[in-house]
Design goal:
2 domains, SH3 type barrels, four-stranded antiparallel β-sheet, six-stranded antiparallel β-sheet, 12 strands, alpha+beta
């Protein structure tokens, strides 16, 4: 009798593959979108930094001028004691939280809301940033790190700058032990073993030859135990075509 595929085990909702919420220190969100932010401004002072296992970038502890305390995603170049603004009337300072319609074209932004008041959902990874392309009647055009262009409402909030920690992948891990603890912090699946390296009862591509030995295309309606490879693929392999006179001239 064969074994269940790793994807099948993960889909069962077992604790082994769940994100460990109890290890995370902060549920990162913007403060509630109240009348102060809609009409005025709050001055915020950076009081410290926090390394949270839930994300790749640092968080900064902040204290608002009305006595509130909270956390924001730290941008590159920020330091303890620096000040930033939160609100419609805020200044264009590093790390400030402003609605998109108040941010000039070409500005780098991160931690962007998809809908006004959701607390920030996209562009939060270390070293990432989006840019404001233009504004129109329907909203604000944003170019994401993937080069995809999206249109968001002007009332959606974002922070100015680039997320800190952009060079974290430049230093090699050197040994597998460090990678083990890196992925264990978020219960990420590691290492990922290829199916051709497994035994035949563990994976449909398994066997001692270390190659598949059969076509890897599979039907959309295949049972879960065999649904691996190129699922409902239109084509596989290199693209082939006939030469034309126009192509030869180039």
């Amino acid at each position: 009798m064969g074994k269940r595929l790793k994807t099948q085990k993960r889909g069962a909702g077992r604790p082994r593959y769940r994100s460990p919420k109890k290890r995370y220190k902060v549920d990162l969100n913007y403060r509630e979108y109240d009348d102060i932010e809609k009409t005025g401004v709050l001055t915020v002072k950076v009081t410290g930094f926090v390394d949270d296992p839930a994300r790749s970038a640092l968080l900064m502890k902040v204290e608002y001028d009305n006595g509130e305390r909270g956390y924001l995603l730290a941008p590159e170049g920020i330091a303890v004691g620096d000040e930033l603004d939160v609100g419609v009337q805020g200044k264009l300072r590093l790390g400030s939280v402003l609605p998109l319609y108040r941010i000039p074209d070409g500005t780098y932004v991160f931690n962007i809301e998809r809908t006004p008041g959701d607390g920030g959902k996209i562009v939060r990874a270390a070293g990432s940033f989006a840019s404001v392309v233009s504004k129109d009647k329907t909203g604000v055009i944003i170019r994401l790190p993937s080069k995809k262009v999206v249109s968001l409402l002007g009332e959606c909030r974002a922070q100015l700058g680039i997320v800190c920690g952009g060079g974290r992948l430049e230093k090699p891990l050197i040994k597998a032990g460090k990678a083990h603890y890196k992925y264990k912090a978020q219960n990420k699946l590691w290492p990922v073993v290829r199916g051709v390296h497994m035994a035949a009862y563990s994976h449909p591509h398994g066997g001692k030859q270390h190659h598949v030995g059969k076509p890897t295309t599979i039907a959309r309606g295949a049972p879960p135990g065999s649904k691996v490879g190129h699922i409902a693929a239109r084509t596989t392999g290199r693209k082939k075509g006939k030469r034309t006179a126009r192509a030869e001239k180039r």
